[in-house]
């Protein structure tokens, strides 16, 4: 990839960044923080969460600096698949059981607004090459038509989400596999090139006046005073408000917060062109996820598959996981035969014990935006608005998330348990699917 030679730290670079995105260039290496600075808001971490908060706060009039330990979006935010869904990664019934119907409805509506905000940003910046397409399908691996009707009613009537129930025939008409039964179709969900969105978001933040410093890891925070002190290896920064958006990598500045996240590595791969055989197997143009959370895929570039599959709580070389992805593709669509991969990659998401993101104020002037798990596009946009409004206007809507406390994720034992639970759950889902298909045949 060609590198542009511009150096960028301010709004003037926004247009250059967008031009670079359009031309398919990688973004150049940017400035480190090498001088002391005073700002209204300091955001730690330049992933989707940090950039979303920074953009919103800057648009509301704050002076904002983002400190990024490596490069913008080097982790999960630059590796995601670009599927933008309503709601959260937690079943709606679990939310109702925990916080009640009314609050769940309010939260759901905020998350849906987050989805629309992502769409609006993509349109506003006319993000080049973002290639937005509509519709996502959540397929069931077992025959649960009756339960599905209940869920559809709740989502549609009580939660105002546009949904359609698809019968088995309709599902199998667009996804030629006997693995799937019913599905929920979300016509307003959408997908795009996730990396271009990240770059577009970065460009918008710069345009709004946000200063982004890369290779500037935060190594310490003194949050006791009115103005907080943030320390990097080369400089100090003072800010009235600090936003912790470092996901699982936050580390020493707030180790106890990092410890509330279970790191989960997600793996993804892009196949080589599959030609006409892909169009025979899949005619659905949007994203497909199964309700066991195992596979997530869609067609890109006409005849390639973008596919993400089982996760681990310990890092594994993505090339090795590529083999697992190829096997999953073959299991679901055996008619595709042997599929070669162009590349495989991974990113770490932060999973909270309750599954909901951490959004809110920990103490005066100290905010957190992390734990977005596997559904981070709409929820980071939502977090950006909630936190920026909290900082700038004293808005307290973020308190809707207060019942989801910071809970220790169990350290190494938690990771071992997480891996074991994931493996058992996948095996259980596999067995349930097998039984459902056997029953159908019988
Ligand atoms: C393979 C894959 C596919 C995915 N697909 C989707 C999808 O289709 N749809 C969807 O909604 N979600 C998806 N996700 C989830 C989504 O990517 C994440 O939820 C989201 O990107 C999390 O964003 P973040 O900003 O919290 O974290 P990150 O992207 O991890 O960003 C945090 C940043 O903070 C920086 N940082 C940490 N500590 C410090 C420090 N002390 N000082 C300075 N900087 C620091 C890090 O360097 C990092 O850049 C996917 C994730 C993966 C891995």
UniProtKB/TrEMBL annotation:
SUPFAM superfamilies noted in UniProt: FAD/NAD(P)-binding domain (SSF51905)
Domain of life: Bacteria
Gene source species: Rhodopseudomonas palustris
Residue spans crossing the bilayer: none
Keyword 4Fe-4S: no
Residue intervals of the FAD dependent oxidoreductase domain: 40-388
GO cellular component annotations of the record: cytoplasm
Protein name: FAD-dependent oxidoreductase
Keywords, sorted A to Z: Oxidoreductase
Sample GO molecular function, one term: oxidoreductase activity
Oxidoreductase listed as a keyword: yes
């Amino acid at each position: 990839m060609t590198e542009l030679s511009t150096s960028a730290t301010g709004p003037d670079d926004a247009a250059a960044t967008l031009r670079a995105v359009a031309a398919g260039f990688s973004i150049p290496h940017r400035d480190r923080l090498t001088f002391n600075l005073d700002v209204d808001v300091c955001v730690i971490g330049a992933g989707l969460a940090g950039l979303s908060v920074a953009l919103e706060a800057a648009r509301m009039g704050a002076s904002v600096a983002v400190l990024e330990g490596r490069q913008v979006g080097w982790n999960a935010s630059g590796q995601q698949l670009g599927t933008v869904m309503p709601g959260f990664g937690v079943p709606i019934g679990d939310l109702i059981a925990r916080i009640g119907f009314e609050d769940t409805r309010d939260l759901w509506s905020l998350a849906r607004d987050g989805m629309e905000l992502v769409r609006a940003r993509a349109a506003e910046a006319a993000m080049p090459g973002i290639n937005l397409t509509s519709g996502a399908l959540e397929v069931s691996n077992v025959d649960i038509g009756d339960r599905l009707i209940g869920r559809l009613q709740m989502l549609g009537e009580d939660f105002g989400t546009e949904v359609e129930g698809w019968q088995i025939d309709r599902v199998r008409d667009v996804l030629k596999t006997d693995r799937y039964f019913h599905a929920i179709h979300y016509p307003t969900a959408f997908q795009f090139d996730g990396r271009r969105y990240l770059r577009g978001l970065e460009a918008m933040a710069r345009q709004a006046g946000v200063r982004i410093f890369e290779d500037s890891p935060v190594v310490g925070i003194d949050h006791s005073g009115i103005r907080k002190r943030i320390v990097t290896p080369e400089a100090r920064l003072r800010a009235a408000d600090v936003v912790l958006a470092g996901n699982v990598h936050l580390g020493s500045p707030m180790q106890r917060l990092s410890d509330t996240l279970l790191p989960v590595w997600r793996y993804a791969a892009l196949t080589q062109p599959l030609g006409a055989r892909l169009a025979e197997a899949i005619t659905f143009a949007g994203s497909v996820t199964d309700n066991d959370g195992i596979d997530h895929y869609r067609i890109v570039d006409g005849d390639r598959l973008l596919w993400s599959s089982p996760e681990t709580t310990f890092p594994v070389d993505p090339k090795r996981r590529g083999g697992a992805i190829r096997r999953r593709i073959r299991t679901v669509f055996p008619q595709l035969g042997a599929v070669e991969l162009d590349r495989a990659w991974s990113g770490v998401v932060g999973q909270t014990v309750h599954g909901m993101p951490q959004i809110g104020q920990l103490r005066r002037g100290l905010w957190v935006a992390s734990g977005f798990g596997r559904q981070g596009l709409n929820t980071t946009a939502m977090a950006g608005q909630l936190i920026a409004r909290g900082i700038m206007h004293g808005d307290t809507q973020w308190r809707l998330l207060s019942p989801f406390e910071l809970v220790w994720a169990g350290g190494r034992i938690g990771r071992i348990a997480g891996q074991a639970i994931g493996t058992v759950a996948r095996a259980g889902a596999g067995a349930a699917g097998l039984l459902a298909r056997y029953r159908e045949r019988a």
